[in-house]
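Researcher: Structure prediction, please.
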Amino acid sequence: MTGPLYRLIADRLRREIESGERQAGAQIPTEDKLMRQFHASRNTVRGALRELTTRGLVTTLHGKGTFVAERVAPIVVTLTSHQATGRVGGEGLVYTAGSAASGRSPELRDLEVGVRRARPAIARSLGIPEEAEVIFRSQNGYVDGLRWSRQTSYYPWSLAAHAPRLLGTGDTSEGVAGYLAEVNIIQAGYQDSIEWRAPDEGETVYFDLPPDGHIQVVEIRRIAFDQNGNRMRVTVTTYRADRNRFVINDGAVPLSALYHG
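Model: Predicted structure follows.
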């Protein structure tokens, strides 16, 4: 095999990882050991490790070393609602149902509810003045004990008079959309915008991402409309880009394909 030495080193380590010789969590030899093993310079070894990091095969912890990354199978997130069930994809209860359908163990945690001033982007999405009060409901999604998603929904303050449970943390087993439908605020449609971007500092910490930013996050911003065409909600959900696959259905898709793509 020919090619740059850093790539030969990277390929050797990659084969050892993919064959299972080096298990997830195992520490990769130090730079000094790799330099001696392959008779290579430090820059060459660092180039090899950088290539493995870019491929998501290893992760470096400052002051501790480089370790084989845990390989986590992605989950299919169906973003569209289904004609037969009316369920809306990519949110709360439906997301946990989709994760469970994949044989995983999903959980929603850390529900936080309150009132805050609308930032410019949220105000534009809801069609309200900047700094107007909005109701927010935030929760974190976990799958198999791993932090999987962050989601915050914002509602115009005007809904509080008709749907006071929006401000509570009590049981909403029917889902917030179901509760709103009970008080005649019916979600008739929604618009999604999807962005792949570098994580911010908070997302890097929350998702335990490598600090070099090579793993992106996906941000989905959903604007929901009621039966009168009013903007009733905007939901911002963030996922690790390497652990999710997104599906959009159109037309008569069988129910069996709802969560599997």
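Model: Residues 75-257 form a domain with the Chorismate lyase fold (CATH 3.40.1410.10).
Researcher: Thanks, that helps.
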